[in-house]
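Assess this one:
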Amino acid sequence: MDGFVAPVFYHGGRFERCPNGDRYYVDGKVERFEAMDVDFVFKKALEELAKELGYIKLKDMFWHEHTIVNFEAGLHRLIGDREINEMCEYTINNHLKEFHIYLDHPVDVPLMPGPDDEPPPVVVDSSSSDSYESAEDEAYKPPPPGYETVSSESSSPKKSRRKKIGTPKKKRFTGKGRRNMS
């Protein structure tokens, strides 16, 4: 096969059925990528493009055959190389410059923000004139004098216990235990 074809992804939406039973894709976005050499179109390459759109996990990937009037009948699941080759042959044989891929992704997978999405606003506490010093003072409070952190080997590394250590007692020299140095 010779030729370059641009993959067009339909994503962010979902498949639904209308009252007459026909299946269709709703609430999606469309993203067109640069043309690819059809000899180098693989499922892994298409999955990488889906990752660029922010999809970490996919349930399914479908290509759509536009010559079929019924949308559902024109959908073909992309499972492996055989289906990729069928999609590329269909595209080249019909002198098309793009193939259309529909992504079916789990709802609970968060999408990364796209280039058109605005980042969430950053809230800054302006109540303090010197935020660095006040943040440091609030984040760390040293233990009171006479306390020391002691970790136990039997406890998890996340946990630590504080043990009170009294002031050291002065040892009195009694002369006992003295060695004769001569």
Q: What stands out?
A: Residues 81-93 form the longest helix (13 residues). Residues 124-137, 151-168 have pLDDT under 50 and may be disordered. Residues 127 and 134 are 10 Å apart (CA to CA). The chain has four helices and ten strands.
